[in-house]
Amino acid sequence: MSTSVLATGMLRELILPPSSLFLIIAAGFMLRRRWPRLGRTVSGGALMVLFVLCTSAGARLLVYPLEGLTAPLASVSGTGAQAIVVLAAGRLARAPEYGNKDIPDYIALARLRYAAKLQHETRLPILVSGGNGASDGSVESKAVGMARALRDEFGVPVKWIEGDSSNTAENAAFSAKRLKQEGVQRILLVTDAMHMPRSQRAFAQNGLEVVAAPTMFFSRDALAPFHFLPSAEGLRRSYYALYEWFGLAWYRMH
Q1: How do the pLDDT tens digits run along the chain, 254 residues long?
Q2: Which end of the chain is more exposed for a tag (fewer CB within 10 A), N or C?
Q3: What CA–CA distance (Å, rounded) separates 120 from 213?
Q4: Cα-only R_g, the chain
Q5: How does 191-202 read in b/e, with b if 16+ C-beta sit within 10 Å?
């Protein structure tokens, strides 16, 4: 892993919850020595925000408007798309049940499943995009693992493998360059609903016409009492949504 990727990852973890909130709570305790009331307010406020973000109901406050920026693909007919592009997410390293090969994580797998469905319906060629492989070949790119999963588990051929990108902006730039060389101008873009607004913007900025094909909508479940209790899934959704909101803000500023 390159130094820049590692530094970016560390900065991201410090800015986003829960790390940032733990730091604020710690700062509140330090402030209590000199300004007891201010310290209690800072720590208590951060703890309250952390509690809300740990609930699925609290996460929905961030997820619902973000997913509202996109919509499910109504029909594959008449889109005019020439190819399907599916973006990487995470991976599970050295999965023993797959011969110690890296495999897509469950978010990436959900994207691949929907891409396979679209390919079966349209017969369009697929490009998979995702890097973070090692330069010496000891670690394969995420795109390689995605292509293998599509071929071996879904029976779907993969025409292009873009394995050099390390973020969404590079997914778009490198994929667009490859596709334009093949005369592709309009694509079905597959990623999850929270990631779609930022992804669609990035691909459009690189000169491709994008038909959004989002999957994994998290904000459509009916609320139940347990959604107001803290859970790891609630915090995960809050983290992901905040990451995407910050990403959209960054894109708009630049």
Answers
A1: 567 777 888 889 999 999 999 999 999 999 999 999 999 999 999 999 999 999 999 999 999 999 999 999 999 999 999 999 999 999 999 999 999 999 999 999 999 999 999 999 999 999 999 998 888 888 999 999 999 999 999 999 999 999 999 999 999 999 999 999 999 999 999 999 999 999 999 999 999 999 999 999 999 989 999 999 999 999 999 999 999 999 999 988 87
A2: C
A3: 14
A4: 20
A5: bbbbbbbbbbbb
CB environment 149-183: b (16+ within 10 A), e (fewer): bbeeeeebebebbbbbbbebbbbbbbbbebbeeee
Residue 244, amino acid: E
Residue type, 60: R
Q: Which amino acid is at 34?
A: R
Structure tokens at 251: 């894109």
Q: Which long-range contacts (CB under 8 A, 24 or more apart) does 70-76 make?
A: 70/193, 70/196, 70/197, 70/200, 70/212, 70/214, 71/212, 71/214, 72/214, 72/217, 73/118, 73/188, 73/211, 73/212, 73/213, 73/214, 76/118, 76/121, 76/122, 76/188
Alpha helices in 138-181 (DSSP H): 142-154, 168-181
In this structure, are residues 93 and 50 in contact, taking their beta carbons and an 8 Å threshold?
no
